[in-house]
């Protein structure tokens, strides 16, 4: 099942790229927004097996918002691919996964314009994002996927000067400028994927591929991440988990390379789709 946020309304995607508006088709039982769907995810899944006939909704990419538009928490994981940890000059983690947040105000739909902060070094990080479907606290790894509604694509856009400034790196602020957490284009349930733990992912800047990896390389795969995180925090329906990025970020290149005004970033994950952002200079920059 694919579930999209079209102008704030939950829409089930059909094979012909049209959609079924959830509130209308369910007679008001589910929807209209996405968050109420996650709050009753098990009931929604059961209904969505056989949605009532409803006229198809035609929509454009510009109407798509993030598949979970108002999560209580956005959890993000650093250094979760050995190749990326190495290019960043850090040891690969053991014990608890390195965890920070992208503040919810940075959340955006898939195809947005992003303002580059004046004087900043803005970098790309394509990531598989898990959307939580059941409240998770002290969940065993074997039970963790059952607490995930589905997956989508995220860009963990990162302004490296702010991220690495100060006596100790403080990731959250430098990764939370407006639109620095574009997510989408829709949620895909794990049963739609050939192998939910091995998906090709990558991104390209103006057509040049800069990241190209597979999620089987994750040090903490989705199930282990959800389990480990749930030993400390409670994960709520609709929460997002950015799972980390493979090698190829601009900071790890020689010479370093960062996003410039006018460039376009396209990100993809096998079985989900793609999203694209364009970058513009800050006013007065
Ligand atoms: Zn990241």
Care to describe what's here?
With 285 residues, this protein is an alpha+beta fold. The protein folds into 2 domains: 2-59, no CATH class; 68-281, Fumarylacetoacetate hydrolase, domain 2 (Alpha-Beta Complex). Helices cover 16% and strands 30% of the residues. The protein is built from 8 helices and 18 strands. The strands form 3 sheets. Strands 1, 2, 3, 4, 5, 6, 7, 10, 11, 13 and 16 form an 11-stranded mixed beta sheet that branches. Strands 8-18-17-14-15 form a 5-stranded mixed beta sheet, with no helix packed on it. The longest helix is centred in the last third of the chain and has 9 residues, at 222-230. The model has no long low-confidence stretch (mean pLDDT 95). Zinc ion binds at residues 76, 125, 127, 156, 242, 244-245.
Briefly, what is this?
The chain is α+β, with helices and mostly antiparallel strands. The protein is 16% helix and 30% strand.
Helix-strand sequence: EEEHHHEEHEEEEEHEEHHEEEHEEE
CATH architecture of the largest domain: Alpha-Beta Complex
Radius of gyration: 18 Å
Individual helix count: 8
Low-confidence stretches: none
What is the rounded distance between the termini? Answer: 44 Å
Ions, cofactors, ligands: which are bound?
zinc ion
How many extended strands? 18
CATH topology of the largest domain: Fumarylacetoacetate hydrolase, domain 2
Helix content: 10-25%
Q: CATH superfamily of the largest domain, please?
A: Fumarylacetoacetase-like, C-terminal domain
Tell me the strand percentage band: 25-35%
- Morphology call: globular
Largest sheet, in brief, is: 11 strands, mixed
